[in-house]
Amino acid sequence: METALPALSGTALYASLLAVVWVFTSARVSMIRNKEKVPFGDGGKETVLHRVRAFASNAEYVPYALLLLGLAEYTGTASWYVHVAGIVLVVARVVHSYAINEGHARSPFRILGSVATNTVILATAGVLFVHVVASGA
Q1: Strand, helix or coil for residue 56
Q2: Which residue has the higher pLDDT, 92 or 38?
Q3: In a domain, 4, yes or no
Q4: pLDDT averaged over the chain?
Q5: C-alpha distances in Å from residue 104, one per residue of 45, 89, 99, 108, 117
Q6: CATH code of residue 104
Q7: 1 found inside a domain
Q8: N or C: which end of the chain has fewer CB within 10 A?
Q9: Total domain count, the chain
Q10: Which phi and psi angles does 9 have, rounded to 5°?
Q11: What is the Cα–Cα distance from 25 to 22, expressed in whole angstroms?
């Protein structure tokens, strides 16, 4: 028996994939804090700081990007856009997290991840703006 997919199924797909990135980066923070015996913060240890920042960066950017993506999908943005933006966002967060986790502050992966994440956010905000203006709201 086939059922129709819910209205935000594209956003749900990318939210589920990004949840895996979220849990992975969170687990890496817990593991390094345990290894370095740092219960809170970074304890002044660079390796702990890198992993904390990899997790925190996801915590800062992913929810907002998903909110915009969900609003775009809800307002009728083309499915292809939702999937392209979602794929770019997932890849961006993975490469960005990898670069920071490994302590490569000046890595092209970190820059690529950051630029791609912000591009998805700005492009999706633009799509939403056009939808609102075009609808006369």
Answers
A1: helix
A2: 92
A3: no
A4: 89
A5: 15, 20, 5, 9, 18
A6: 1.20.120.550
A7: no
A8: N
A9: 1
A10: -65, -30
A11: 5
Q: How many CB atoms lie within 10 A of CB 132?
A: 12
Could you count the other beta carbons within 10 Å of the beta carbon of residue 48? 18
Q: Does residue 107 belong to any structural domain of this protein?
A: yes
Structure-token pair, residue 131: 């939808």
Specify whether the CB–CB gap between 120 and 92 falls below 8 A.
yes
50: burial class by Cβ within 10 Å (0-12, 13-18, 19+)? Answer: buried
Sign of CA dihedral 86, 87, 88, 90: positive
Q: Is residue 122 helix, strand or coil?
A: helix
* Residue numbers of the domain that contains 39: 9-135
Q: Residue 67 and residue 60: Cα distance in Å, rounded?
A: 12
Task: Give 50-81 pLDDT, tens digit per residue.
Answer: 888 888 899 999 999 999 999 999 999 999 99
CB 29 within 8 A of CB 55: yes
Rg for the chain, CA atoms, rounded? 17
Q: Quick one: pLDDT at residue 47? A: 86
Residues in the chain: 137
